[in-house]
Amino acid sequence: MSNQETVISSESLWPEDAAEDEAVITNWFVSEGSAVDRGTTLGEMQVEKVSVDIVANTQGEVDEIMIDEGGELSRGDPLARLMIE
Amino acid sequence: MSQQKAAERQLTMSRAMVSAIAHEMREDEEVFYMGEDVADYGGIFDSTDGLLDEFGRDRIMDIPISETAYVGAAVGAAMEGMRPIAELMFVDFFGVGMDQIYNFMAKNTYMSGGNVSVPMVLTAGVGGTYNDAAQHSQTLYATFSHLPGMKVVVPSTAYDAKGLMHNAIRDDDPVVYLFHKRLMGIGWLPAPEGPKTPVPKEDYALPFGEADIKRNGEDVTIVTLGLHVHHALEAASQLSDDGTEAEVVDLRTLVPLDEETVISSVKKTGNLLVVDEDYQSYGVTSEVISRVVEHDSDIVNNVDRLAIPDVPIPFARSMENEVLPDVDDIVASVRGMNL
Amino acid sequence: MVVVGVTQIKEMYSNMVTARHYEERLREEYLEGNQPSFDISAGPIPGELHLAAGHEASGAGICQHLDNDDTVTAPHRPHHIAIAKDIDLKRMTAEIFGRKTGLSKGKGGHMHLYDPEVGFACSGIIAEGCPPAVGAGLAAKKRGSDNVAVAFIGEGAINQGAFLESLNFASVQNLPVVFVIEDNDWAISMPKGRVTDVSDGSERANGFDLPGYRVDKDDAIEIYQAASDAIGRARDRSGPSLLEVQVHRRMGHFMGDAEGYRPDDDIEQANARDSITRIENDLESQGVASDDIEQIRSKAQNRVEEAIEWAKSQPKPDPEEAYTDMFSNPEEGVTGGKNTDNVVRGDD
Q1: In this structure, which topology does domain B212-335 adopt according to CATH?
Q2: pTM given for the model
Q3: Nearest to B86 by CA among B68, B108, B110
Q4: Which DSSP category does B201 fall into?
Q5: Is residue A52 within 8 Å of A44, Cβ to Cβ?
Q6: Is B136 a catalytic residue?
Q7: C15-22 average pLDDT score
Q8: Domains B2-198 and B212-335 belong to one CATH topology
Q9: Which residues on B lie below 8 Å from A35 (Cβ)?
């Protein structure tokens, strides 16, 4: 069994009509090591005034949180790495 | 190992509250939610975020700005056996619907000799700290607790919020569920450390009338609720550096009030500080201290209380900060006890 | 229909561009440092801010008929009305910035502005400005003056008991009150049709025996003309009226409102019907030179800049000031809970 990984990119979550290219991580709900299902809300980021859910695209385990809570990010920055189960 | 990690998933207080509402709505089609901006907006303070998509407009109802009409309608629907949840966007708006709240919702069961019940929940956003001034910053804990006939619930964490909401909806009597705006985890009103906690996926009901000791300590009992649970915990951590260990008692429900837990804590520590985010006179601090003293005035050596003074809440930051009890105030009060 | 003279139009235009520029500048000030993460409790302007860009024609068209002895109550979106009512702009701005020399010494903020010199007050509970306006009308009647009172509300407020009770009370007492509904189609995120069963709010008058009139266009001159009738009725003691005026909301409900619930074409349509462009056209068609128009506009902008600059230079209140002004007599202080042994707060 391979240790396949996937990265959750902010690009895939960015609201279509957003004029801004910057966001802030407002909350993480999981930590490194947490088990998640596909569709689990891992956390949320704020783009302009809109709160966007950061959602797991696979079942697996959180390998790395790449931007801390409160941290700023630009559109396209990776948010978290998941190990696929 | 996987199950344990699943339980570690944390939620903001708003998401925890919403998950309880969603669960109860799935279980019972007679549960529905009425409020201003609860549909597409998901609640100004995220109290119904995401529910419209699952339940539709018939059950997540945007209603006119008519508190008397829709709170009263909730009373009526509840008397027909439904389980409505009606929301006051800000508790400060209770004035425009108060008759239906305190004269009908709260009294119908009694006035009917127990022949009718009103199984509804009245939710409301409470609290200040973000300069919303006198008409949008109140908690009014004492107002609802003082008038007989309604249960009053004040969660301070996500875990408590979900359990208390399950119980509130299932309770056959009217429950006033007051959620602090600063604790909800809203992006534009960031919460302090503390309210975001692990929350079990399954449903669970926290009984009313059970306070929760959020921190054990031997030296002083700090009794509080809502946002100030977190201020008290922060203060306790500072006091601990000086060798004073504070016990933080989170009341969780004002009606019914868990005096036993408070009294037994004071018996242990001998010192009592009550902290409240409502106007001081004739309020929560008075009540808690009175219950302790009534029980046995000899058990308490030092007693102090912190609350908002009897003034409308001022707008400018320097003044609002002055009237709101804060971590520094709590620390100063305990230090002033010279333990 | 009353003919509107050029002087009146110029004054209304001045009020409207003042209001528009004011809201645009306040938005800038409010969001200063508050990007990308918007935190309502940070930033130079404390608390919530409900800006009235798009409502200018209503404030200007109606208040043009009023003087300092007439009373106006306004809701949580008040700046355009305050400006047209000739409020002390510097002190209003200082109040919005939470400064000691603001109209309320920093105690009220943008939702609770009071300027008794010009008869203006606003408040934050929907429709609750109506009963006090009725009271001002009652005072005028008792004293035999020809003062009038005007209560401004939004279209969401017509479903609130205080409004309906006020219509009846004013009518049965024959009071000199005009109720003005500023219809911008949205009560925060709730579109009018979802919460109200009539599309013309002025029809509420029918049940209360007072005249109702709706101005469908967001047009200062039409609003002026309709208000002329209503305020005229009040002044000659023929009783209250209800006026509904169409306006539009250009900056969301409050600063921080992403308006995700509002269809894009609704926003576009609203922004396309700018009442300021209309009144500029009216001035031109009255023969006013574009230089003159530009002069009015730049004077208005300068006035706004001065007010903001002045406000920002004002001191913040001392924490101890929280304990004064609850009662009128300064000897009568706070009656409970002033914990003088607490830590006294510093500044923000």
Answers
A1: Rossmann fold (3.40.50)
A2: 0.94
A3: B68
A4: S
A5: yes
A6: yes
A7: 98
A8: yes
A9: 2, 5-6
Question: Is A47 an 8 Å CB contact of chain C?
Answer: yes
Task: Report if residue C319 sits inside a domain.
Answer: no
Name the architecture of domain A5-84.
Answer: Beta Barrel (2.40)
Q: Which residue of A has its CA nearest to C37?
A: A24
Nearest to B85 by CA among B181, B154, B18, B184: B18
> To which residue do tokens 């990308």 refer?
C36
List the single residue in A with minimal CA-CA distance to B41: A50
Residue C40 tokens, joined: 């309502």
Best residue in A45, A48, A49 for a mutation probing chain C (most C CBs within 10 Å):
A49
In the complex, which subunits touch B with 3 or more CB pairs below 8 angstroms? A, C
Distance CA C218, CA C229 (A): 18
The domain containing residue C255 runs over which residues? 6-313
* E strand intervals along B78-150: 83-88, 121-126
* Cα dist from B301 to B280, C118, C284, whole Å: 21, 56, 80
Residues with Cβ within 8 Å of residue B115, at least 6 apart in sequence: none
**Domain B2-198: which topology?**
Rossmann fold (3.40.50)
The DSSP symbol for B311 reads S
**Total residue length of chain A:** 85
Handedness of CA B155, B197, B24, B92 (dihedral sign): positive
Tell me the per-residue pLDDT of B48-100, one tens digit each, with 9 for 90 and over: 999 999 999 999 999 999 999 999 999 999 999 999 999 999 999 999 999 99
CB B199 within 8 A of CB B158: yes
